[in-house]
Write a structure and sequence with these properties.
heterodimer, A: mainly alpha, 3 domains, 8 helices, B: Creatine Kinase, Chain A, domain 2, two-stranded antiparallel ribbon, 10 strands, 16% strand, globular, binds zinc ion
Chain lengths: 167, 353
């Protein structure tokens, strides 16, 4: 097998990463492996990850170029096409600007689209936002406990609050 | 600061005093955070990175946790010095490339550290010995709270902490354990196990060489998902699965010992013999032999060696550690000679105790 980077030398190093039951493999010759920094013992590079090398945007459906290239983030000025190419988001405002692209991407990576973890204590979350955050957690629990009636009530409450918030 | 000092004072997490420390080398958690108003580092200009660094360093200096810390400017280090910090698990491969306006802050015990202007503005890390991810989380959570008092983080109530890469969005939390799994490797069960682990939403990583020279009995298991779960859920999930892997490794060690005792004794005995008598040794061989040594000590097939020393040796034999210790860059052959010398001396010293 030939090296996947130079395509010339025989691949003698085989890297494997298993994510969500999908095995990603990389076959490299010694020289390319060294150049890419793969040759140090895995022990010494615990952050080593094929996905970080390839970027989180792989496997994403193609987006019509014309649409993606028109909209610019008002804060950093990037287009989604630029972000996708580099595999890195421009700034915190990009999340809102490109949410139509990013939400499906987050869903595919994480299987979820809503944060349930901690929030900065000093965050000036409005009372409504705090309430919504709390309800979402309860909803998640209700679904897990298969209490679907309760979940439906919670879902309605959240919807109502979100609507009020955006008004 | 003097990196040479660090060589002779290993991080506290290397003391090997945590639960299951013979198999679980370390529990590590990192959090990714960004400042609200600033463009993320992969897109930011140097002048902007500079104000980010100033802001963050100011906040870090206020936090009680970093009172006794080294502040290291990455751009001022030589490639060798950066390799040294990489080997020590203190910087990432991204930081190893160097670059302006990048800083490493590490407190002297090396339990807590942070990188400024990596892929995200802030990457906070804690490492503990053994399997104690929950404790690791408790500490990093407190440090995060303390820093956050003086920093306006990029956060949305819908998506959580906003990061440069969507694979970190949400909690920005990566919890990982470094495991030593020689019995699962020897028995060939490892591939199957790693596949099982991946089905549970975790990532398992290792490095595989070709043919018989399978190398590296060290594996890292970490969470893949950062969004849609609470931090304790993520941490407990990784901890639970790592515990199961540890149990399987233990069972396999017993089986190997029962079925192939003589072969096992021979294998670890040879490793001990070479480590205590060789005069030239490359890194890969040293790592493999040290893995066997660790296994032999754990199974009482070899004289008792302190876990702290077994841990320390894995670092002392690393190429940049050898060169920093000598205070200069050395050709590979000289390194091989010094590596063999360090191993002989340290192990002979230990056997006299
Ligand atoms: Zn190549
Ligand atoms: Zn933006």
């Amino acid at each position: 097998m030939l090296c996947q980077i130079c395509g010339k030398r025989e691949a003698t190093f085989h890297f494997k990463e298993v994510i969500n039951d999908k095995i990603r493999e990389l076959h490299l010759c010694e020289e390319c492996a060294r150049k890419k920094g793969f040759l140090s013992e895995s022990f010494f590079i615990p952050s080593f990850s094929l996905s970080s090398l390839i970027g989180g945007f792989t496997g994403e459906a193609e987006i019509p170029f014309s649409i993606a290239s028109q909209v610019q983030c008002p804060h950093c000025g990037l287009t989604y096409e630029q972000i996708r190419e580099k595999g890195k988001i421009g700034c915190s405002f990009c999340y809102q600007t490109f949410k139509d692209y990013l939400v499906p991407l987050l869903e595919r990576i994480h299987g979820h689209t809503r944060h349930l973890g901690k929030a900065p204590r000093g965050l000036k979350m409005s009372e409504k936002e705090k309430e919504i955050h709390k309800l979402r957690k309860e909803l998640e629990d209700a679904v897990k406990q298969e209490e679907y009636e309760k979940a439906a009530v919670l879902r309605d409450k959240i919807r109502k609050l979100e609507k009020e918030k955006s008004e | 600061m003097n990196l040479k000092e660090m060589v002779s004072s290993p991080g506290y997490w290397l003391r090997g005093d945590g639960p299951e420390a013979m198999i679980v080398f370390s529990s590590r958690i990192r959090l990714a955070r960004n400042l609200k108003e600033f463009v993320f580092p992969p897109w930011a200009q140097s002048s902007l990175l500079k104000s980010v660094a100033e802001k963050l360093l100011k906040a870090v200096k206020k936090a009680v946790y970093f009172k006794n810390a080294y502040y290291i400017e990455i751009g001022k280090l030589s490639p060798l010095e950066r390799d040294f910090l990489l080997e020590r698990h203190l910087i990432s491969q991204e930081f190893n490339k160097g670059g302006e306006e990048r800083f490493l802050v590490v407190e002297k015990k090396e339990i807590l550290s942070l990188m400024i202007n990596e892929e995200d503005h802030l990457r906070l890390q804690t490492i503990f010995s053994g399997l104690q991810l929950r404790e690791t989380w408790d500490l990093i959570n407190k440090v995060d709270d303390a820093l956050e008092e003086n920093i306006d983080y990029a956060f949305s109530s819908q998506w959580g902490y906003l990061t440069a890469c969507p694979t970190n969005t949400g909690t920005g939390l990566r919890a990982s354990c470094m495991l030593h799994l020689p019995a699962l490797v020897i028995s060939g069960k490892i591939n199957e196990l790693l596949k099982e682990i991946s089905k549970l939403g975790l990532v398992a990583r290792g490095l595989y060489g070709e043919g018989t020279e399978a190398q590296g009995d060290f594996f890292q298991i970490s969470n893949q998902v950062t969004l849609g779960l609470t931090e304790p859920q993520i941490v407990d999930n990784v901890e639970r699965i790592v515990r199961e892997v540890v149990n399987q490794e233990r069972r396999m060690r017993e089986i190997l010992l029962k079925r192939n005792r003589v072969q096992m004794e021979d294998e670890v005995g040879r490793a001990y013999g070479i480590l205590t008598h060789a005069h030239l040794m490359n890194t890969r061989t040293a790592m493999n032999l040290l893995s066997r040594l660790r296994l032999g000590v754990d199974l009482n097939l070899l004289p008792k060696i302190e876990t702290a020393l077994l841990n320390e040796l894995l670092f002392l034999v690393a190429p940049a550690h050898i060169q920093i210790r000598e205070g200069k860059t050395l050709a590979p052959l000289f390194r091989d000679e010094l590596r063999a010398k360090i191993l002989r001396e340290k192990l002979n010293e230990s056997s006299k105790r």
